């Protein structure tokens, strides 16, 4: 035991080792990657298991994000690559103090850490930056950046102080560069803004065969950014996606189930300091029932038959525009009147930035028909029919199409059986008794009854038939 002088009085002081023994050490609460610690920079790193308490004075680093539980209800989050060193309890006096109070101290040696103290419990967490600056957080949320021997802090809320000239001075919420001499205000990082005119921007997605749809988001490009992070939450505020986005890109896609969501984009400047979240972008995934023969060819492209009707399900609060028409509340059934309507636009009501464009393509499925011989004489000659299905667009799997065949001579239908040999359909049309030349007509329809091919052949009657 030893004593220190405080205000002219000799007060017994607790040895530092006893203080550490009596303190609650930080505990590794969770880690998405490897967490390791070492007692000295020249010693090897050793793995730290989740749930284990850390040793005061030992460095800790995490290969991915990890979280620590501190004294009281305070928490410390480390981003990937961050490195800290818990220093244990210390005594200090804030401006209003008559006697010194006990605080928890740690050093941030590298990377980015997020400190949260839910309430002021009379204590504080003191953070030492590589620049030597000391920040005491009593309550609120503080982000600390270790920047190549420099330091920056982002006090988002609460009460904090900085140690300057041997005294503690209060800090107003904001972004600062920190040095041993004090704080310098730093311009906040500009938040990202969405780019609704980008052709890839499609916040409203459509699900057809699967219960998921592909939403796409675009934002303005800025080459000075070092990091980007996209966060998507559902209606209840739960995080359904939290992903890093290459800073060289300004576009992202996600597969989401039917429902309502909202997205925020965070961007970081060259020093890795994050912006405030972007304005929220509403996201929706609705279901579209395609007509028979319709195909969801790509995320933004549908192949539909002529005069098709689309059924839109779960589209409350969605507006739709067909072709060059204006936006109207979405109906359950959407009719595509003709081939001139090639675009369908959807958006969330009251949110113009969610306008999403989809393309409607007509089916290019066609039947190539060959009839022979060229001058058949009935009833002696049978007519051989050969049909090959083709789709120049490549959208339709022709092997999966079961065509319908209709053979007519004059006003009469002639039942004809067709077989498929793996590439072509073959049919044999037997001759009939005729009194005069007739026109044989073969019509091929797709599975929804749309004609995709037609061929004609003149058949003549045998001279014996004509004389009857």
Description:
With 468 residues, the chain is mostly beta strands. It folds into four domains: 14-185, Sandwich (Jelly Rolls), CATH 2.60.120; 216-280, Immunoglobulin-like; 286-361; 366-466, Immunoglobulin-like (Sandwich), CATH 2.60.40. Strands 3, 4, 5, 6, 7, 8, 9, 10, 11, 12, 13, 14, 15 and 16 form a 14-stranded mixed beta sheet that branches. Strands 17, 19, 20, 22, 23, 26 and 29 form a seven-stranded mixed beta sheet that branches. Strand 9 and strand 10 form a beta hairpin. It is elongated, with a radius of gyration of 37 Å. The termini are far apart. The relative contact order is 0.07. The model is unreliable at 1-21 (pLDDT under 50).
Draw up the topology in text:
Blueprint lengths: L1 E5 L2 E5 L2 H7 L4 E5 L3 E4 L7 E2 L11 E4 L3 E4 L5 E4 L4 E10 L8 E17 L7 E4 L5 E14 L2 E15 L2 E5 L2 E6 L2 E4 L18 E4 L4 E7 L8 E8 L4 E7 L5 E7 L1 E10 L12 E9 L5 E4 L2 E4 L4 E5 L4 E5 L5 E2 L3 E3 L7 E6 L7 E7 L3 E7 L4 E2 L4 E8 L13 E6 L2 E2 L4 E3 L4 E5 L8 E8 L5 E11 L1 H4 L2
Parallel strand pairs: 10-11, 17-23, 25-31, 33-40
Antiparallel strand pairs: 1-2, 3-7, 4-5, 4-6, 6-9, 7-8, 8-10, 9-10, 10-12, 11-12, 12-13, 13-14, 13-15, 15-16, 18-21, 19-20, 19-22, 22-23, 23-26, 24-25, 26-29, 27-28, 27-30, 30-31, 32-34, 34-38, 35-36, 35-39, 37-38, 39-40
């Amino acid at each position: 035991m030893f004593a220190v002088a405080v205000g002219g009085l000799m007060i017994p002081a607790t040895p530092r080792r006893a203080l550490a023994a009596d303190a609650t050490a930080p505990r590794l609460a969770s880690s998405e990657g490897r967490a390791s610690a070492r007692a000295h920079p020249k010693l090897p790193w050793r793995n730290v298991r989740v749930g284990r308490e850390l040793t005061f004075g030992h460095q800790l680093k995490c290969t991915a994000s990890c979280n620590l539980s501190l004294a009281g209800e305070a928490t410390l989050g480390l981003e990937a690559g961050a490195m800290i060193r818990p220093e244990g309890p210390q005594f200090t006096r804030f401006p209003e103090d008559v006697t010194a109070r006990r605080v928890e101290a740690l050093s941030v040696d590298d990377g980015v850490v997020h400190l949260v103290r839910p309430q002021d419990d009379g204590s504080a967490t003191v953070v030492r930056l590589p620049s030597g600056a000391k920040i005491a957080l009593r309550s609120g949320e503080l982000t600390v950046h270790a920047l190549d021997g420099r330091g920056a802090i982002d006090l988002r809320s609460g009460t904090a102080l900085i140690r300057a000239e041997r005294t503690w001075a209060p800090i107003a919420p904001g972004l600062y560069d920190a040095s041993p001499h004090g704080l310098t205000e730093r311009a906040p990082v500009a938040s990202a803004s969405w780019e609704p005119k980008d052709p890839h921007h499609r916040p409203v997605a459509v699900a057809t065969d699967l219960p998921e749809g592909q939403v796409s988001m675009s934002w303005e490009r800025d080459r000075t950014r070092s990091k980007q992070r996209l966060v998507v939450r559902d209606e209840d505020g739960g995080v359904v996606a939290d992903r890093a986005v290459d800073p060289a890109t300004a576009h992202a896609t996600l597969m989401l189930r039917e429902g309502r969501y909202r997205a925020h984009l965070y961007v970081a400047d060259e020093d890795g300091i994050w912006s405030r979240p972007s304005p929220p972008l509403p996201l929706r995934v609705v279901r579209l029932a395609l007509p028979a023969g319709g195909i969801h060819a790509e995320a933004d492209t549908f192949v539909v038959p002529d005069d098709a009707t689309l059924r839109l399900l779960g589209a409350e609060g969605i507006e739709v525009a067909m072709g060059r028409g204006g936006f109207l509340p979405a109906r359950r059934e959407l009719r595509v009147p003709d081939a001139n309507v090639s675009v369908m636009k959807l958006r969330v009501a009251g949110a113009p930035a969610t306008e999403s464009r989809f393309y409607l393509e007509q089916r290019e499925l066609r039947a190539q028909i060959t009839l022979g011989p060229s001058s058949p004489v009935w009833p002696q000659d049978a007519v051989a029919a050969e049909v090959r299905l083709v789709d120049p667009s490549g959208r339709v799997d022709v092997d999966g199409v079961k065509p319908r065949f209709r053979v007519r001579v004059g006003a009469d239908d002639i039942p004809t059986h067709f077989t498929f040999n793996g590439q072509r359909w073959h049919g044999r049309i037997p001759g009939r008794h005729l009194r005069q030349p007739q026109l044989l007509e073969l019509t091929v329809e797709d599975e929804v009854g749309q004609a995709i091919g037609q061929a004609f052949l003149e058949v003549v009657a045998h001279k014996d038939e004509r004389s009857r």
